[in-house]
């Protein structure tokens, strides 16, 4: 098999999201996967040529997932509504899948909680595909199969 045949370019990617094994469905876009090392700067007397940059902690950005409204919207609504009676942090997995269902990449997420859900803007003068967006927070990346 040649190198070109082994590369999957991820055209028509969908993002499948599960929380503790419960499928929330697939999304058409995923933004915000990332981490940042927060740096603290220290100036040292007598050391005038540089400022020390010390890593302090990791900071994870919120993730926004968007998709057209569909049958999986109800699953998402149930998860958001469950927050009214207190919340539980969940272990989550986001899988990037090609059009034929091949998993291209996956990210395990620790302590996932919903931050915001935005439904469609329904205006008769602007006929568009109705979409929903969910924003989630997490507290780190883990092995997609579990802890660690």
Automatic annotation (TrEMBL):
Pfam families associated with the record = Phage_T4_gp19 (PF06841)
What's the name of the protein?
A: Phage tail protein
> Which species does the entry assign this protein to?
Georgenia faecalis
């Amino acid at each position: 098999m040649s190198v070109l045949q082994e590369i999957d370019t991820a055209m028509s990617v969908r993002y499948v999201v599960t929380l503790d094994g419960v499928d929330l469905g697939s999304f058409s876009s995923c933004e915000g996967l990332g981490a940042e090392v927060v740096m603290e700067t220290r100036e040292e007397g007598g050391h005038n040529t540089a400022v020390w940059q010390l890593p302090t902690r990791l900071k994870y950005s919120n993730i926004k997932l968007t998709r057209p409204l569909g049958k999986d919207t109800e699953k998402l609504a149930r998860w958001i509504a469950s927050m009214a009676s207190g919340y539980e942090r969940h272990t989550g997995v986001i899988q990037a899948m090609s059009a034929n269902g091949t998993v291209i990449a996956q990210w395990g997420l620790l302590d996932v909680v919903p931050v915001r859900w935005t439904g469609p803007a329904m205006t008769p003068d602007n006929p568009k595909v109705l979409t929903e967006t969910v924003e989630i927070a997490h507290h780190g990346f883990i092995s997609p199969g579990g802890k660690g």
